[in-house]
TrEMBL record:
Biased composition (Gly residues): 124-145
Residue segments, region Disordered: 124-151
Domain of life from the UniProt record: Eukaryota
SUPFAM superfamilies assigned: TPR-like
Alphabetized Gene3D superfamilies for the sequence: Tetratricopeptide repeat domain
Membrane-traversing stretches: none
Record key words, sorted: Signal
InterPro entries: TPR-like_helical_dom_sf (IPR011990)
Annotated signal sequence range: 1-17
Protein's UniProt name: MalT-like TPR region domain-containing protein
């Protein structure tokens, strides 16, 4: 059975080694020594001699943290793009299921490297049954390694290299994991240019790069992996289907929807074809494998749904795809686990479509996309999870910016109720909900509640680097509240007119300050401008 990258290898990384024990740092040592041995051009081209320390190494404890980006972050446009660039809110709209940028700590993995001629030389072929060619095994006259050395096959060396990369990912060192895989490719490719194991290294590198949001580099490695796999296993193998799927996801992340759709359909056809092949056919082994791999079919189906979603022009079209998206998401969750990298990546790519949809002129499309996102996150994490609550806050912000204040208030209150189950009142996310509620009150004319809520949020967020953007928006809300607080009955008409003019001028100044910081086209700036126009009419 082949390993189709981290997708199958790391669904729940709580057991971190071949025997179910934790990854040991000796793996890194062995992988490094394997690289050094290869660079020294050892004579046996299918085996590598390494000196592996026999001293016991304490196991690393598995990460008890949920994924640091809890499933998603990156460089795409976010709901509040530029609004939370630094500090604790840097992860809010680059957080769970938003985009693939920050390091992710997987929970567990299952071994199973791709098939390799270097690993499959059996006794019948004159080998030692352990993946060694005749004359290269650990026994036999004149063929044994020097004292103190262990001779391992190329496949075993690459296994150790991947184990070392897994160790880096578990430690939250995603960039180092990618570098280790790239170094391995640079070392092994010139020495073993025709080895099928290279396809697996390219596949692993593609997935990690894709999760980092580096889609161009990921596509390069996914293409190389596909070509290598086709060359060794043919165009109709199950392993080829997995490589087509990975490249299809890369093309989707690049925004090349037509290419992505073609690759994903080809992968799905192979997976469906293999799963329906009868016993005794040449594809019988692949049929058994495909039947036990429903996650791959659901993954391909999910991205095909996302391709269709990218072309939807109305809210009804978004809703029509929700059932299929949800079914495929459930299939991936059952196959890989709720915290798997594959599921995280799928949700982050869906989030990218949501963020793009919010920039469209059609309000109903944006609303339907956000509701769809809440549905998917609720399926994975639970309806009262932090992830679903953050998505509801996004929906509340979208409603606020489009003058749907009653709906905005309802959504932000639901988000706050869920967050209170996880955090104390002074937590940043709960203060953020109160901040949004204050802005809603200011727009509705409840100047007393607005002033109370926004003064508190302004104080909380002032001086927090990127969070000062929240303080700037609070200033806008306070200026709106000041305008609303003016009572024409208590002031002479001329005096009231002057005070309102001053309040409007203050509001305009604060809006301009926010626009300078995050852009005039930002939805919060456009929303504030909308409310400025309403107050200007009242003043006239």
């Amino acid at each position: 059975m082949s390993r189709r990258g981290v997708a199958m290898a790391w669904p729940l990384l709580t057991s971190l080694a071949l025997d179910g024990a934790y990854i040991r740092s000796a793996y890194t040592l062995a992988a490094t020594q394997a690289l050094c041995a290869a660079q020294a051009n050892v004579p046996a081209r299918d085996t590598i001699s390494t000196r592996v320390s026999t001293n016991p190494v304490p196991p690393l404890q598995p990460s008890c943290c949920r994924p640091a980006a809890s499933h998603s972050r990156g460089t795409e446009t976010h709901l509040l793009n530029g609004y939370f660039n630094n500090g604790p809110f840097n992860w809010l709209f680059r957080s769970q299921y938003s985009s693939p940028g920050a390091s992710w700590r997987p929970q567990g993995h299952v071994r199973g490297f791709s098939a390799s001629t270097a690993m499959n030389y059996g006794v019948a072929a004159g080998g030692d049954g352990n993946g060694n060619r005749p004359g290269t095994g650990s026994g036999g006259s004149g063929s044994g390694p020097p004292a103190g050395e262990t001779r391992i096959s190329l496949g075993e060396a690459l296994n150790q290299l991947v184990d070392a990369a897994i160790e880096k990912v578990e430690a939250g060192q995603m960039e180092e994991a990618v570098s280790l895989l790239k170094d391995g490719l640079n070392t092994f490719e010139p020495v073993f240019p025709n080895s099928p194991e290279l396809g697996e290294l390219h596949n692993q590198a593609a997935l990690l790069l894709l999760f980092q949001g580096r889609s161009e580099e990921a596509a390069y490695h996914a293409q190389a992996s596909l070509e290598t796999t086709k060359r060794h296993f043919g165009t109709r193998s199950l392993l080829t289907a997995h490589r087509l799927l990975r490249l299809g996801v890369c093309r989707f992340a690049q925004g090349k929807m037509a290419d992505a759709a073609g690759l994903l359909r080809e992968a799905l056809d192979l997976l469906d074809g293999a799963s329906t092949s009868g016993a005794g056919s040449p594809a019988a082994d692949d049929a058994a494998s495909a039947a036990s791999d429903p996650g791959s079919r659901c993954e391909a189906g999910f991205y095909l749904d996302c391709v269709a979603l990218a072309h939807v022009k109305d809210g009804g079209g978004v809703e029509a795809l929700s059932g299929s998206l949800l079914a495929n998401l459930r299939g991936m969750k059952e196959a890989y686990g709720a915290e798997s990298m594959i599921l995280s990546l799928a949700l982050s790519q869906h989030s990218r479509l949501v963020n793009g949809g919010l920039e469209q002129a059609d309000f109903l499309v944006g609303e339907a996309l956000l509701k769809q996102q809440i549905m998917l996150l609720s399926e994975v994490s639970g309806p009262h999870s932090e992830d679903a609550a953050v998505a509801r806050y996004k929906l509340a912000t979208y409603y606020y910016s489009n003058d749907m204040l009653q709906d905005a208030g309802s959504a932000v209150r639901q988000a706050a109720v869920s967050l209170r189950a996880h955090y104390p009142e002074e937590h940043d996310l709960l203060v953020l909900c109160k901040h949004r509620l204050g802005m809603i009150c200011a727009a509705q004319g409840d100047h007393r509640s607005a002033s109370q809520l926004l003064q508190a949020s302004r104080q909380h967020f002032s001086g927090e680097g990127g969070q000062s953007m929240l303080a700037k928006e609070a200033d806008i809300g306070l200026a709106m509240a000041k305008f609303r607080a003016l009572d024409a009955a208590r002031e002479p008409s001329a005096r009231c007119k002057q005070l309102r003019h001053e309040a409007l001028e203050l509001l305009r100044t604060e809006i301009e300050a926010l626009a300078t910081a995050i852009g005039h086209g930002h939805m919060l700036v456009q929303g504030a401008t909308r409310y400025y126009g309403q107050l200007s009419k009242m003043a006239r």
